[in-house]
Design a protein that fits this description.
- With about 180 residues, the chain is α+β, with helices and mostly antiparallel strands.
- The chain is about 15% helix and about 25% strand.
- The chain is built from two helices and eleven strands; from the N terminus they run H-H-E-E-E-E-E-E-E-E-E-E-E.
- The strands form three sheets. A four-stranded antiparallel β-sheet has the order 1-3-4-11, with no helix packed on it. It has a four-stranded antiparallel β-sheet with strand order 6-9-8-7, with no helix packed on it. The chain has a three-stranded antiparallel β-sheet with strand order 2-5-10, with no helix packed on it.
- The longest helix is centred in the N-terminal third of the chain and has 20 residues.
- It starts with a helix and ends with a strand.
- The mean pLDDT is about 80.
Length: about 180
């Protein structure tokens, strides 16, 4: 089968002209940017490696997180009975309330007896009644917070001398 050069000559001319014009355009004009809206992307089809991190913006509601005030910690200085601060931790026992009204406890206490009031939080910060698991010298115990603000420790087991030698408050949080 023989192809006529007369019929293919116009197609060749168009191709050559297209190539010359394409090479003559600046690189920016040759690039085509494809814009796809979020609703067009199927779930789990784009990975982190495919996203250019510098093009991402802050999620609108996440900007609030940068405007939240820092926690103000109040040390617990008044202990009941033989309870007191553990001296070798990085934080003394204390509490703080965040912007959403969540109460945070930190530090560690020692020396008290089970079911004896260890300290009292301001009543305005306390729930009606709360039991929170905490780390104690004997394993896991319960920190009980009464509506009055009274805080007691209930251990699963007592130590040899009948007291609770260590109760960790770090990570205890609750809504006030």
């Amino acid at each position: 089968m023989r192809i006529s050069t007369v019929k293919s000559a116009p197609m060749l001319a168009v191709a050559v002209v297209g190539l010359v014009v394409g090479l003559a355009l600046p690189a920016a004009a040759r690039e085509t940017k494809l814009v796809i809206s979020g609703s067009q992307i199927k779930p789990n089809t784009v990975t982190g490696k495919q996203v250019k991190e510098s093009t991402l913006t802050t999620v609108p509601k996440a900007t609030l997180a940068t405007k939240l005030p820092a926690l103000v910690w109040h040390p617990i200085t008044t202990f009941e009975g033989s309870w007191n601060n553990v001296g070798n931790t990085s934080f003394v026992a204390g509490y703080a309330v965040d912007a959403q009204g969540i109460v945070h406890l930190r530090g560690a206490i020692t020396g008290g007896e089970e079911n004896q009031i260890a300290f009292t939080l301001p009543a305005a910060l306390t729930p009606s009644f709360l039991k929170v698991p905490v780390e104690c010298a004997t394993g896991v115990g319960l920190l009980k917070i009464e509506q009055t603000g009274d805080v007691t420790v209930e251990s699963q087991e007592e130590t040899e001398d009948g007291g609770n030698q260590f109760t960790d408050l770090d990570g205890v949080t609750f809504a006030s």
